[in-house]
């Protein structure tokens, strides 16, 4: 049976190269070619007919096996497949048996943040988790350099525009304990998670983040995973991402 044409970003996602959104960025940056010619976002390819390459390396036509991991990212580790500055990445934490898999990171955390990260070869799953239209809530525990003033909650919920980008929280839960150290901790929920969004939101209100941990995505939590540890997700675990 002949393969049906696919949008190039979906083709790349289905083969574990990157999520659809990241694939679109790669195409726009000129890193993707089809039969040796620069590709365009939205271009269609038929698997097995054209030669698709990323950064000069041909993408294998056969689909990768479906594999999804949950990993507890420690502080100081990059969420990246590439390592231009020789920093450690999430993939250095995986055993050798998984290092040959075409996995990409869903919902990245910056180098100084920690917590639950999903690694998957399933492009459709990555799209469901990361795209705000699917309303998958990510929960973060945030420690600040000074007590959190609840008067700022409406501003976080309404959102701000920072360098032309709209940033907002879906929910803000102050620590119920009244002692000084507890009042420096706040829980923030996001549906999307733009680059350093929580840090930028809170900086706009006059706070510096001293620790940031994502402890839950959907109903899947980091509980039971020590820092640097991972587990392979089965169907029930994956369903909890969308519960």
Give a verbal description of the structure.
By secondary structure, the protein is of the alpha+beta class. It has seven helices and 17 strands. It folds into three domains: about 5-60, RNA-binding S4 domain (Structural Genomics Hypothetical 15.5 Kd Protein In mrcA-pckA Intergenic Region, Chain A, Roll); about 70-125 and about 225-240, 2-Layer Sandwich (Alpha-Beta Plaits), CATH 3.30.70; about 135-215, Alpha-L RNA-binding motif (Alpha-Beta Plaits). The strands form four sheets. Strands 7, 8, 9, 10, 13, 14, 15, 16 and 17 form a nine-stranded mixed sheet that branches. The chain has a four-stranded antiparallel sheet with strand order 3-2-5-6. Strands 1-4 form a two-stranded antiparallel ribbon. The chain is globular. The two termini are about 35 Å apart.
């Amino acid at each position: 049976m002949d393969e049906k044409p696919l949008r190039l970003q979906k083709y790349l996602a289905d083969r574990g190269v990157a999520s659809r959104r990241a694939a679109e960025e790669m195409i726009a940056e000129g890193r993707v070619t089809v039969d040796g010619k620069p590709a365009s976002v939205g271009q269609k390819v038929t698997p097995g007919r054209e030669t698709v390459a990323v950064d000069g390396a041909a993408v294998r036509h056969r689909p990768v096996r479906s594999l999804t991991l949950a990993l507890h990212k420690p502080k100081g580790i990059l969420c990246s497949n590439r390592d231009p500055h020789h920093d450690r990445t999430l993939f250095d934490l995986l055993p050798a048996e998984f290092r040959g898999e075409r996995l990409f990171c869903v919902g990245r955390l910056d180098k100084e943040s920690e917590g639950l990260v999903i690694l998957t070869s399933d492009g459709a799953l990555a799209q469901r988790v990361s795209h705000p239209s699917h309303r998958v809530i990510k929960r973060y525990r945030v420690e600040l350099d000074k007590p959190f003033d609840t008067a700022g909650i409406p501003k976080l919920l309404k959102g701000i525009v920072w360098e032309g980008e709209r940033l907002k929280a879906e929910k803000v839960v102050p620590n119920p304990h009244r002692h000084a150290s507890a009042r420096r901790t706040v829980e923030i929920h996001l549906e999307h998670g733009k680059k350093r969004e929580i840090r930028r939101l809170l900086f706009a209100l006059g706070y510096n983040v001293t620790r940031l941990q994502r402890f839950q995505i959907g109903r899947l939590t980091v509980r039971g995973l020590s820092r640097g540890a991972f587990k392979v997700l089965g169907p029930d675990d994956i369903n909890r991402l969308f519960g």
